[in-house]
Amino acid sequence: MIIELTTSSEIKKIKVLPSVMYQTYCESLEFPDIEYNSDMQPIIHEVELVVSLEVANDEYEISEEIEENLKKKYWIDKEKNHIIIGKMTMTEFLDSWRENMGASWSYWLDALDGDHLVVGSRADEIIKRDLYDDPFDFGSLFYIQDH
Known about the structure:
Blueprint: E1 2-6, E2 11-15, E3 19-25, E4 43-52, H1 53-60, H2 64-73, E5 75-77, E6 82-94, H3 95-101, H4 105-112, H5 117-128, E7 140-146
Antiparallel strand pairs: 1-2, 3-4, 4-6, 5-6, 6-7
Helix pairs in contact: 4-5
């Protein structure tokens, strides 16, 4: 992969070998009971494509000006000392939780976050119209957000 390190006087095109960083988390692993207005959060998966800031600095001497220009295109994570080239968040909703609650996708997802209502409505339509062969059996519904 090629990224550009720019200054007022030059543009350096450098070849980098990015790494993939992955983390997953959930607020609570207990079963979400819809009758008690549970605020059970879905499982969140975060994937980042990163380049070591330290390695880039050792090879290319990243000045403050270059770093400021990098910030215009990418995220710089000083704490983890890397440049984030790309980032994606996937929200996972387990079908087994929805089935045990006896709720529709749209009801459950709207209760968690109104922005997910459209995703839940589409999932309900897929089930109602039998558009695919058991699309959620033993699985999950994923909402993918890029950044």
